[in-house]
């Protein structure tokens, strides 16, 4: 079992889209996946065609067993839902002893899943984001290529590094920075900000990008993953680029490329 956090301090960078499509990919390939919605907006639930719910509250506050709180989203894909009750969850956790380790301890009993995906809230001050990063083995940071989002990247990297100050905590290994809403035709802003991202984080940490596409928004609106809604789209399989390392569709980027890079960690 590995635990993967999808995190950024800034909202609107496709964290939930990334979480649902990673989960959908591995689930359709026979890997048991558990998604956990830690954002009070409940978008992880709605993007999979489910209703928002208080699963996280029941799991962390009422101490209900995992099997009682999960919702079956797809074959091999279960979800702990969330809604505005997460505000009560945060209040409860803030009053608890050893609060930073609560989620990590609870997930020790989730061994039936090979992959657990944590869709983190955008606020860096959220205790739920801290709990997620402490519980996680690996982290992916999605980011749009605009200045405010780049600041969010540096902030979340600093947050991950600061976890060394907690006893018996190993910070999650950073899989990489995932450029989202990438303009493949390279506007001046995209060129400048991609270069800035590479300068700040190092080119080796930049993952193959997810192209800018309305298809992803349409898929979420229909409660479907990209694999169900448009499996041959550039958002799913990437785009032709003869100069880059390719995925199994002979393309570069897209969620296929990302999931194939993650596969050795899961399997």
Average of the residue pLDDT scores: 91
The biggest sheet, with number of strands, parallel, antiparallel or mixed sense and barrel status, is: 7 strands, mixed
Provide the succession of SSEs: EHEHHHEEHHEHEHEHHHHH
Radius of gyration: 18 Å
Beta strand % = 5-15%
Indicate how many domains the architecture comprises.
Answer: 1
The best one-word shape is: globular
Task: Give the uncertain stretches in residue-range form.
Answer: none
Quickly name the level 1 CATH class. Answer: Alpha Beta
CATH topology: Rossmann fold
**Number of E-type strands:** 7
Strand order of the largest sheet: 3-4-2-5-1-6-7
| Structure annotation, total helices | 13
Sheet/helix structural class: alpha/beta
**CATH architecture annotation name:** 3-Layer(aba) Sandwich
Can you say what the CATH homologous superfamily is? P-loop containing nucleotide triphosphate hydrolases
The percent range for helix content is: 40-55%
Termini Cα gap: 9 Å
